[in-house]
Write a structure and sequence with these properties.
This protein is mainly beta. It is built from two helices and twelve strands. Strands 3-4-5-6-11-12-10-9 form an eight-stranded mixed β-barrel. It has a two-stranded antiparallel ribbon with strand order 1-2.
């Protein structure tokens, strides 16, 4: 795709699909943006150095098992909801994730911004044009699977299973507690954007990273890992 950013000389496609299900762009007055071809925030490492690191370390990100596919939605009642409040951090005890949340939007060419691979590979990011976690709708958090130095913040995302919990702390002091309902891996060429980014009538959360095999020729991972979760409770810190 023309105009895509490059990492170590390799083109990286990281933009939302042209679809009625894509998250809403910035309000009018900030300029029109082109949202095209996003296939699950494919946050990759690239170039000879990164490939060499991966070969030396022989580390492979966990792949979601068939039994973890679960459900996309919570099933039954819509569940609780929270007021709008920007998130500040995310915690996933089952896979050892504890990260502050960057707030990222879009690049000038309409592609989605991702954490800096050199300085922020171990930090996740909330897509600021999705709802805030806990609101009715679909909130989106992205993170790299690996980096030039090895595993990154969402390296073990594929190891999550239905029933695991994700805690998102908001700027108003409330911690939103989400329960994982399903963990799935999608081939890029079959990426179901109309399911993943569709507006929800409950407080939905999607965590997204890359998955599957890495193609050193194209500089892309072949799949994306998506965690589906829904709000089950909340608490206020002291």
């Amino acid at each position: 795709m023309g105009g895509s950013p490059r990492i170590a000389g390799l083109r990286v496609v990281m933009s939302w699909p042209e679809s009625q299900f894509a998250p809403q762009p910035p309000p009018r007055g900030r300029g029109r943006v082109r949202l095209a071809g996003f296939t699950g925030v494919c946050l990759i490492f690239g170039g000879a150095v990164a490939i060499l690191v991966a070969l030396l370390m022989q580390q492979h990100a966990p792949t979601p098992s068939a039994s973890a596919a679960g459900r996309i939605g919570p099933g039954g009642a819509k569940g609780p909801a929270l007021h709008e409040s920007p998130p500040v951090s995310v915690s996933i005890p089952e896979i050892g994730v504890q990260s502050k949340l960057l707030h990222l939007g879009l690049n000038q060419d309409g592609t989605i911004q991702v954490p800096n691979l050199v300085t922020s590979a171990n930090e996740a990011a909330w897509y600021k044009y999705s709802v805030t976690p806990g609101q009715i709708g679909t909130a989106v958090i992205e993170g790299h699977v690996d980096s030039y130095r090895g595993p990154a913040v969402f390296f073990r995302l594929g190891a999550l299973r239905p029933g695991n919990h994700i805690d998102v702390t908001l700027s108003d002091g409330v911690t939103a507690v989400f329960r994982v309902t399903g963990v799935r891996e999608y081939d890029k060429d079959k990426y179901p954007a109309n399911i993943i980014y569709a507006p929800a009538n409950y407080a939905a959360l999607r965590l997204i990273t890359c998955g599957g095999d890495f193609n050193p020729v194209t500089g892309h991972y072949l799949s994306s890992v998506v965690v589906f979760a829904s709000l089950v409770s909340s608490s206020r810190g002291k």
